[in-house]
């Protein structure tokens, strides 16, 4: 189950029965305002799960495959090593390996905003 302290407005979540992707538009004590391509509604947190972070999602966010398994976008590189991702900010020409790697799309969105200061948006791919 998703927890309120994990979310920001704009995060993408999956409905628990895998029936669709919803975007967070409001955060409340017991649930979220969210919308999909058709409607906007309020739902409780228990109805949502994180979207597993995959290579497909990196591409949807505009990351471009570089050498090997490295993807880069706007001063942030991600190296896919097995099931883990190593994140580095190329702007500072340094790397960091996170103790807890993002497993879900909303965690990558939050990390990207914290490091880069901009929202991570899907491209038109």
Features:
globular, five-stranded antiparallel sheet, 125 residues, 14% helix
Can you give a write-up of this model?
With 125 residues, the chain is an alpha+beta fold. It has two domains: 4-49; 55-116, no CATH class. The chain is 14% helix and 35% strand. The protein is built from two helices and ten strands. The protein has helices at 55-60, 105-116; strands at 12-15, 21-27, 31-35, 40-44, 48-49, 64-65, 70-73, 76-81, 84-89, 94-96. The protein has a five-stranded antiparallel β-sheet. The longest helix is centred in the C-terminal third of the chain and has 12 residues, at 105-116. The radius of gyration is 15 Å and the shape is globular.
E-strand count: 10
Strand content: 35-45%
Find the structural class using helix and strand composition.
alpha+beta
- Rough outline: globular
Q: Provide the spatial order of strands within the biggest beta sheet.
A: 4-3-2-1-5
Count of alpha and pi helical runs: 2
Name the poorly predicted regions: 82-86, 88-93
Number of domains: 2
Itemize the secondary structure elements and their pairings.
Elements: E1 12-15, E2 21-27, E3 31-35, E4 40-44, E5 48-49, H1 55-60, E6 64-65, E7 70-73, E8 76-81, E9 84-89, E10 94-96, H2 105-116
Antiparallel strand pairs: 1-2, 1-5, 2-3, 3-4, 6-7, 7-8, 8-9, 9-10
């Amino acid at each position: 189950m998703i927890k309120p302290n994990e979310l920001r407005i704009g995060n993408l979540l999956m409905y628990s029965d895998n029936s669709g992707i919803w975007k967070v538009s409001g955060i409340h004590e017991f649930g979220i305002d969210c919308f999909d391509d058709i409607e906007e509604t309020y739902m409780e947190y228990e109805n949502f799960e994180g979207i597993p972070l995959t290579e497909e999602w990196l591409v949807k966010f505009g990351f471009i495959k570089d050498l090997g398994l490295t993807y880069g976008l706007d001063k942030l590189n991600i190296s896919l090593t097995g099931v883990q991702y190593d994140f580095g900010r190329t702007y500072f020409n340094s790397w960091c390996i996170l103790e807890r790697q993002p497993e879900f799309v909303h965690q990558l969105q939050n990390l990207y905003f914290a490091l880069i200061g901009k929202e991570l948006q899907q491209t038109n791919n």
